[in-house]
């Protein structure tokens, strides 16, 4: 933001100093925010660009399924691919082991067949809402892209990230299992974030912090509720004045309801993941594509930095699917056509829009 | 300009009547919101009204939640330049984002920075020229984070609020505080919230609609104005309830069903 004193009126347009030429990893957004990618292009679209720098993202885990790991892995890999250093904290004894599971960007000329015919691409562009009737492979029609120059990569979950991305300069790991309090993690975070101060100049580099299962019971501090909350608050304040994004996943069922609400209020962007039971007949009748779904992602809150207008999404619940068991996609839920002859009416088939009994889709 | 669309909120607060005396003078306003529906736009609105060019009001903003740049941008879109107001000594911003009480050892300054914060506010008010003629508005964003800063000692936060209340009687300051209702309603004993509701002269609740979120209506506001003085001299409680939609440059308030 330019200095205030040189402006004559209070309504002059701010030319953001962070030009996209900083690199493919950053993108300008509205209200002077700069986004970085979550690693999942569908999620970036849902959130209106990605995660804004200076924000705190929190993901509520489901104890029955490790889907939050999908979000974590893509977030971490995306940062490393874009040369954004990473601080990773987890309750494991050796967090470095997790780095071996990070996915690699898919090669751009992979099984996705790119239509290089520009007329065909225009046709697809117009009829976007019918994309579910086309093959999945025609979605990525931007065939020019090379893996490294995209803002958001498509990650192949079966291919591990190349080792040179995991060098010590780029990734710092912290184990939080044995620490009796959070001061060590706080100091590490402060040191990390001090390398990416937010000032009015251009953004040279952005950083990412990923904290996994923050309130996990095996951590020694996990019963110190106010200390955990203080840590989150100070992390958020530090991130606010840095060019960084912090992602924290936590199991909400282990917190008291009042504290869970406090954590939810702390988050700028709040997501939750939920497992889908296998072979649920009710759900399979209700939704198309149920067999391919791995879980649900719910968007509770979208970051509102520098603005007071809330973001109201058309849909807040999305299905998590693995395309070809390799690529993570998020899709809107589509209600299956109701069989008119079966005798059950529309209202009693457990629809998403609310019925008297709580269905599996209620969060 | 945009006066007409915010009229319901101004009416409920008594701000649609004459500017002098400032209708919120000497009164405590408590704003409650939830995760689904944020009430910070009410803070921004009151701040904007307080810094209107026709008055000599002074605002002291105690921020636990966002840095100055955020409020600067938001208020600028609402038509109020906080940087200019700050330079003109009409707006004082206290950045409390990193305030944290040292935990554990009770012997060292157990009230931590809150007493010091009160001292700072007091000094700022006393240092104002012609303080008796100015209307000072103290805005706190938000109380639940003040509790976190105090390591969970809501007693210290309540003490702080009571100290600030003395300012409302001594200097006729207005005190506006935001808190999150759903944190306390899910706790066993929502003492802190009830204390604040008792202290408040005006209670504003921002809630989502019972039918869920919608892009045209962001939520509903309920304003309880205790002992509102009408021009006729009578004073009684007034409850207003209406829907709102938050935009960049204005908050539109309307009765349910009347928005086209």
UniProtKB/TrEMBL annotation, chain A:
GO biological process: tRNA wobble uridine modification
Pfam families in the cross-refs: PAXNEB
GO cellular component, one term: nucleus
This protein's record includes keyword Cell membrane: no
Keyword tRNA processing: yes
Predominant place of localization: cytoplasm
Signal peptide: none
Annotated metabolic or biological route of this protein: tRNA modification; 5-methoxycarbonylmethyl-2-thiouridine-tRNA biosynthesis
Keywords noted in UniProt: Cytoplasm, Nucleus, tRNA processing
Gene3D superfamilies for the chain: P-loop containing nucleotide triphosphate hydrolases
CDD domains tied to this protein: Elp4
Feature: compositional bias, Basic and acidic residues: 108-120
Subcellular location: Cytoplasm; Nucleus
Biased composition (Polar residues): 1-15
PANTHER family (UniProt xref): ELONGATOR COMPLEX PROTEIN 4, PAX6 NEIGHBOR PROTEIN PAXNEB
Record's protein name: Elongator complex protein 4
Organism listed in the record: Theobroma cacao
Organism phylogeny: Eukaryota, Viridiplantae, Streptophyta, Embryophyta, Tracheophyta
TrEMBL record, chain B:
GO biological process: tRNA wobble uridine modification
Pathway this chain belongs to: tRNA modification; 5-methoxycarbonylmethyl-2-thiouridine-tRNA biosynthesis
Source organism superkingdom: Eukaryota
Gene3D superfamilies: P-loop containing nucleotide triphosphate hydrolases (3.40.50.300)
CDD domains: Elp6
Family: Belongs to the ELP6 family.
Protein name: Elongator complex protein 6
GN (gene name): LOC18586307
